[in-house]
From TrEMBL:
Entry-linked InterPro entries: D-isomer_2-hydroxyacid_DH (IPR050223), D-isomer_2_OHA_DH_cat_dom (IPR006139), D-isomer_DH_NAD-bd (IPR006140), NAD(P)-bd_dom_sf (IPR036291)
Family: Belongs to the D-isomer specific 2-hydroxyacid dehydrogenase family.
Entry GO CC: cytosol
Membrane spanning residue stretches: none
Keywords annotated in UniProt: Oxidoreductase, Pyruvate
Every D-isomer specific 2-hydroxyacid dehydrogenase catalytic domain range: 4-338
UniProt name for this protein: Glyoxylate reductase/hydroxypyruvate reductase
Gene3D superfamilies: NAD(P)-binding Rossmann-like Domain
Originating organism: Capsaspora owczarzaki (strain ATCC 30864)
Entry superkingdom: Eukaryota
Ranges where the D-isomer specific 2-hydroxyacid dehydrogenase NAD-binding domain occurs: 115-309
Pfam family, one: 2-Hacid_dh
Keyword Oxidoreductase: yes
GO MF term set: glyoxylate reductase (NADPH) activity; hydroxypyruvate reductase (NADH) activity; NAD binding
Lineage: Eukaryota, Filasterea, Capsaspora
């Protein structure tokens, strides 16, 4: 009988589904009993002989793991939309399908990205900390002043599903201009229905801006808010480097909810401490978790969150269910419904 390995405890409905399949004799279920990650040696050992692996972002799937698993492996199903932790080429070359969980986390991740942008732009953590530790006041005219969203130019780097959902949300904030860069110049179709009509104070009507495909360098020069929602690939690795931060406005806010690997964090630290840019909000870092001693965490103008883009109960459950769906199709020898191509 085929064996599947689940590398950590998932949501209860997903685990119940997986266990009921095992109870019905459809497969042998090998589950890591903890909600934390499976140590690498254990993963290598228990992958051996498995037909399907249900994994998360912390499990690196590379040649070593595929060798350890063996030629019967049919599918690697990750509970994430991002798949930079999976060697897709190596999987494809060995006939192993790779599945991910697009769509179901788009809204939650876009909500978090906009929250991070607003919190960073309006200094919420610093302001809240002042209330708690007796640094509230004396009030003065520019105390805790941040940046306006309304009327601003927003640049989205990587206008895929999540970037477009961020754009749709920001359309409601009366922004002045919406730029985007990325591989797909036609991506603006994703946000076209984001157009929001505003009734101005004088009764006239205006609409939210039409997204404009813009070369990256120009986007960086012109944007008040630069939001990264692109995938981590060989092309985007460390793309936010010293030279790119140098192009940005000294008043700019940089927001990253994509992957830490797209940012040169030393360059970001330098940009934030020398006034090259005004502030940054990061939901992702490299590595994760980031050491509490990391220099970025000493800065008041840098808000760092622990990769919680998709962290709502419903979203995480939907991701788990989608990953189980991919796993089931894969072990049955069918095309996974949400597959990743090399
Ligand atoms: C993903 O699914 O890739 C997200 O980063 C998880 O929050």
């Amino acid at each position: 009988m085929q064996r599947i390995l689940v590398t950590r405890q998932l949501t209860e409905p997903a685990m119940a589904l997986l266990r009921s399949g095992a109870a019905e004799g459809k497969y042998i279920l090998d589950e890591w009993a903890s909600s934390g990650p499976m140590p690498r040696p254990e993963l290598l050992r228990r992958a051996a002989g498995a037909s399907g692996l249900l994994i998360t972002l912390s499990d690196k799937i590379n040649g070593e793991l595929l060798d350890a698993a063996g030629p019967q492996l049919k599918v690697v199903s990750t509970v994430s939309v991002g798949y930079d932790h999976v060697g897709v080429h190596e999987c494809t070359a060995r006939g192993v399908q790779v599945g991910n969980t697009p769509d179901v986390l788009t809204d939650a991740t876009a909500d978090l990205t906009v929250s991070l942008l607003l919190s960073t732009a309006r200094l919420l953590p610093t302001a809240a900390a002042c209330v708690k530790n007796g640094r509230w006041g004396p009030w003065h005219i520019t105390w805790m002043c941040g940046a306006d969203i309304s009327g601003s130019t927003v640049g989205i780097v990587g206008l895929g599903r999540i970037g477009a959902a961020v754009a749709r949300r920001l359309a409601g904030f009366n922004i002045g201009k919406l730029l985007y860069s990325g591989r797909n110049p036609a991506a603006q179709a994703l946000v076209n229905h984001a157009t929001v009509r505003f009734v101005n104070d004088d009764g006239s009507i205006s609409s939210s801006p039409i997204p404009q495909h813009t070369p990256l360098e120009q986007l960086l020069r012109e944007s008040d808010f630069v939001i990264a929602t692109c995938a981590l690939t060989d092309d985007t690795k460390l793309m936010f480097n010293k030279e790119r931060f140098a192009l940005m406005k000294p008043t700019a806010t940089f927001v990253n909810s994509a992957r830490g690997g797209i940012v040169d964090q030393d360059a970001l630290y330098e940009a934030l401490t020398t006034g090259r840019i005004a502030r940054a909000g990061l939901d992702v870092t490299s590595p994760e978790p980031l050491s509490p001693q990391h220099p970025l965490l000493t800065l008041d103008n840098c808000l760092v969150l622990p990769h919680i883009g998709s962290a709502t109960f419903n979203t995480r459950n939907a991701m788990c269910m989608r990953a189980v769906q991919n796993l089931y199709a894969g072990i049955a020898g069918q095309a996974v419904p949400f597959g990743v191509q090399a």
